[in-house]
Design brief:
The chain has about 140 residues and is an alpha+beta fold. The protein has one helix and eight strands. The strands form two sheets. Strands 1, 2, 3, 7 and 8 form a five-stranded antiparallel β-sheet that branches. It has a three-stranded antiparallel β-sheet with strand order 4-5-6, with no helix packed on it. It starts with 10 loop residues before the first helix and ends in a 10-residue tail after the last strand.
Length: about 140
Amino acid sequence: MSRNYSLTFSSKDVTISCIAIILIVALIISSNIFMHNYQSGSKVVNVYINRKLYDEYSIYLDDLKENEEKTIILKKEKHQVLLDDMEIKVNKNKGIKITKETSPRNICSQQPWINTPGVPLVCLPNQVYVVIESTSIDEPIPLE
């Protein structure tokens, strides 16, 4: 009682399969090109407080020397949503880290160094997030 099963493909099946494979390959190639451009552009550290970008705290990582570290200090007097003053370290090699803050259990300052563009450091009690954003080489860099 053995049954012989045979698979037969029509030319329509083959055509649809080829088109699907070509579309998948094209999608993979275009996403790799996009990610390469996204990660190879200038990297800038942006600070958002209460969902608003504060340009005065922006630091371009390309402007820093190897292992140079800058400190961004957010003052409670200037930003009323903060629980207290906040300190953020920026390092060309290590990335960004919240080093001093006031929040329940100090969860915000326990986060590790982040150096990947697009991955934010978030401090919800202070309504702050800090992110390294990458611009494409073709995009103009704001001078303000």
